[in-house]
Fold:
Amino acid sequence: MIKIEINLAVVLYLSISILILFIWIFFDYRKDKRVKEDNYNTLWQCPICLHIYIDSRAENISRCPRCNTLHKREEKV
Ligand SMILES: [Zn+2]
Structure:
């Protein structure tokens, strides 16, 4: 068995805990940022009725679920 002082053990324990916490926050932040970008790309606003909705399938043309009109990406807000 390895003999270490209690101070060193506490420091090692806290260091490893904080390191794991920062790695977790870093990867969670990256994932969160990616999700936000995806949501922004799929967010549409109808120019006719100003209804805001999510259409993840449409790329250039989307159909408004409220007034049922088709509109292009240039008109997207
Ligand atoms: Zn509409």
About this structure: The radius of gyration is 24 Å. Residues 46, 48-49, 51, 64, 66-67, 69 surround zinc ion (CB under 6 Å). DSSP finds one helix and four strands in the chain. The chain has a mean pLDDT of 86.
